[in-house]
Amino acid sequence: MKWLKIAAIVCLTIFPFLSNAFAKSATPAYLKRLDGTKISTVDVEQLVQRLMTEAKVTGLNIAVLNDNKITYVKSFGWRNKEEKLPLTEDTVVYGASFTKAVFSYFVMQLVDEGVLDLDKPVHQYLPKPLPEYDRYKDLANDERYKLITLRMCLSHTAGFPNFRWINPDKKLDIKFTPGSRYAYSGEGINLAQFIIENVTGKNVGEMMRDRIFKPFGMTGTSMTWQPEWKNNLAKGYDENEQPLEHDERSKVSAAGSMDTTINDYAKFIEAVMRNKGVSKKMKNEMVTSQIQIYSPRQFPTLMTETTEANRAIKLGYGLGWGVFETPHGKAYFKEGHDDGWENHSVVFSDKKLAIVLMANSSNGDKIFKEILEKVVGDTYTPWQWEGYIPYEKSIQ
């Protein structure tokens, strides 16, 4: 009898901990959508697997957040197809321009602390004129550089091309009066990095590690390549599912040098939704439209053609994030693209709902529209502007 009593006490003692551990690791049966309906995770997984097979998507990570917290994280397919190594929730993947969203959140922390002013011309932060720095010498004959502010850099209105190497002469130039229109630009983001490093005397990658990655528990994320990732790294794959080698970046680029995992990036999105590490005022400023967008597509960035197609959703850009409006409230989003990589995230703040998609495949964006619609009920994301042409249409 004595041993039965001891066993009972032990069970009563450890059962709550086992139950909590199970609850945290168990896959939820259902996920909430924007309109209040639910979808089973079994249906989600069948949908994703079917779409990946039909569209030839090598690997896909998905995270869904309900009630401002991570609810569901799942990886599908391969991180290395040739060796049959599965993609997992902790596999290191390329963040591409997801980097810009994290960088912008970091910038808002510095604005919160009075280190930076969004509307101060950036050249005023420097001890000598901007064109006297070798990286910006090409601007010497264009006084418009004096108009550029951090707000313009983060809202993609600084007037730069996406990257200088796109120009025939590979030189940096200002294409339009800063602040007058939207044109997505990695050069603007990298200028903001340049200013911050000159103001603080510190490396932006190290500052982001200390202010974002460590506090938010993003242990598999860095702005530069880490050798310990070598055995758990996802390859990118092109449209024909041919492997592409990973760029092991040694230099920090706020425009796109971050490697991460789906677990980590979901933690970042949860932190943003909960205003962690930044004031509510600055968070709201970040996701408030700074400029209306009238271009029919995001790329190429400098097209002059316009459309009214996205006026109903008030498509615009905030500070580091795109924004639009829906019957369910405001939404903010960020994407990331490169050869072999397609990433997308969108947050519906009023509904406390978000989804993150990260594909190590150039075909990944061909299934984003259907996943957004069926998994979270998002029929509002401007998929044509994004270039998310469904695979059925892309082969016609």
Features:
Beta-lactamase, two-stranded antiparallel ribbon, 30% helix, disordered N terminus
- β-strand percent reads 15-25%
Low-confidence stretches: 1-24
CATH top level is Alpha Beta
Mean pLDDT: 93
- Helix count, DSSP H or I runs of 4 or more residues: 11
Number of strands: 15
Briefly note the structural class of the backbone.
alpha+beta
String of helices and strands: HEEHEEEEHHHHEEEHHEEEEEEHHH
Largest sheet: 9 strands, antiparallel
* Approximate helicity band: 25-40%
CATH topology: Beta-lactamase
Radius of gyration: 22 Å
CATH architecture: 3-Layer(aba) Sandwich
Arrangement of strands in the largest sheet: 5-4-3-15-14-13-12-11-10
The structural domain count equals 1
Pfam family, one: Beta-lactamase
Protein name: Beta-lactamase-related domain-containing protein
Signal peptide: 1-23
Keywords: Signal
Structure description:
The structure is a single chain. This protein has 396 residues and is of the alpha+beta class. It has one domain (29-394): Beta-lactamase. 30% of the residues lie in helices and 18% in strands. The chain contains 11 helices and 15 strands. It has a 9-stranded antiparallel beta sheet with strand order 5-4-3-15-14-13-12-11-10, with helices on both faces. Strands 1-2 form a two-stranded antiparallel ribbon. It has a two-stranded antiparallel ribbon with strand order 6-9. A hairpin with a 4-residue loop joins strand 14 and strand 15. It is globular. The termini are far apart. Pfam families: Beta-lactamase. Residues 44-366 form the Beta-lactamase-related domain. This is Beta-lactamase-related domain-containing protein.
